[in-house]
Amino acid sequence: MRSSLCPTAWLLLLTALTAVAQPFQLPTPNRALFEPGAEAKYFAPTPGKTWPSGTFGCVRSDGHQLHEGIDILWTQRDKKGEPTDPVSAAAEGTVAYVNRKSGLSNYGNYLILRHRIEGLEVCTLYAHLAAIREDLQKGDKVKGGERLGVMGRTTNTKTRITTDRAHLHFEISLVANERYANWHETTLKGLRNDHGNWNGRNLLGLDPRAVLLRQRADGEKFSLLRYVQTQTELCRVLVKQSDFAFVRAHRALVRANPATEKEGVAAYEVVLNFNGVPAQLIPRTPSEVKAYPTKYHLLSVNESEQKKNGCRKFLTTKAGKWALTPEALQHLDLLTF
Q1: pLDDT tens digits for 33-83?
Q2: Which domains can be identified in the chain, with CATH numbers?
Q3: Which of the residues in the chain have pLDDT under 70?
Q4: How far is CA 293 from the centre of its chain?
Q5: Which string of DSSP letters, residue by residue, matches 36-90?
Q6: Residue 67 contacts residue 60 (beta carbons within 8 Å)
Q7: Tell me, what's the pLDDT at 17?
């Protein structure tokens, strides 16, 4: 059937459809992220530190501790000095988890939304909320920009969040494993897990600041998939397993290897960024991996990235050679469980 739309109408329709490819919007009224030199108005610092401590990455404890999100400062307060900024969904999605018991997490009151974007299993997390919308429940659909709650400073940490530092802790993450709760029970015996599959360990954080700025710069050409695929490489690890959870959930990250069409897949070469996010998954044939007897084999290390961003402590040296640490092996076990 031939369309009755004129060329101009088609162009407008295609423009609208393409614009949808930009998945994220700012989750609070604070717009200083897009103002040159206004970082101190956007990021909430840790006590006694400056705004970089509120950004993503190896920014805590003099670079030795990871902060797996960004802390977005308040812009509105009531007469008591408490923040009143509305917190909204950064993208269209589904409510995956709601925690209204602030004492159970250093996130305080928080919720997680799930999003399927370009073949990736993505989550956004909104933490330290004063209040979460009462009607929001697991499984509810939400639109981008829809109100989720009110910014606050709830947490269970000994160091309280003061009113001047009130903020939204915001994360954009990939899901490590849909069976996290089972892995936790098997691997971390005796370590309490109040949040099932939505324990923070199961969320592999991307840099929200970098994602939002890249999206703004690229406009309609922005691709979250391409952003993940082009993450700076920390190391490459051969995983001798023909199929595993992360691969199944993120097929879009699998690169083509024509040899596997004839021989089949015996392993995956996994390209990890400094936070353990698999940026690329390269299938390998039995003949390509027969020289490697162990389940995990470290293939290469980007030494400059390790020096710059080594706070996850995935790598060490033994007898002058790079090796995977117990932390890295546990992380790989989670991805492949």
Answers
A1: 999 999 999 999 999 999 999 999 999 999 999 999 999 999 999 999 999
A2: 23-221 (2.70.70.10), 232-336 (no CATH)
A3: 1-21
A4: 32
A5: TT-HHHHBPPPTTS-GGGGSSEEEETTTTEEE-SEEEEP--B-TTS-B--EEE-S
A6: yes
A7: 38
pLDDT tens-digit readout, 113-152: 999 999 999 999 999 999 999 999 999 999 999 999 999 9
Q: Hey, what are 215's tokens?
A: 């999206």
Distance CA 307, CA 287 (A): 34
SS3 content of the chain, % helix, strand, coil (to 5): 30, 30, 45
Candidates 196, 103, 217, 95; CA nearest to 149 is: 95
Q: How far apart are CA 87 and CA 101, in angstroms?
A: 18
Measured distance between the N- and C-terminal CA atoms of the chain, rounded to whole angstroms: 49
How many other C-beta atoms lie within 10 A of the C-beta of residue 225?
14
The tokens for 132 are: 């979460």
By residue count, the chain amounts to 337
CA proximity to 181, closest of 245, 129, 127: 245
Q: What's the burial of 181, exposed, middle or buried (CB within 10 Å: 0-12/13-18/19+)?
A: middle
Q: What is the pTM of this model?
A: 0.92
Specify the 3-state DSSP secondary structure of 247: helix
Q: Alpha-carbon distance 28 to 26, whole Å?
A: 6
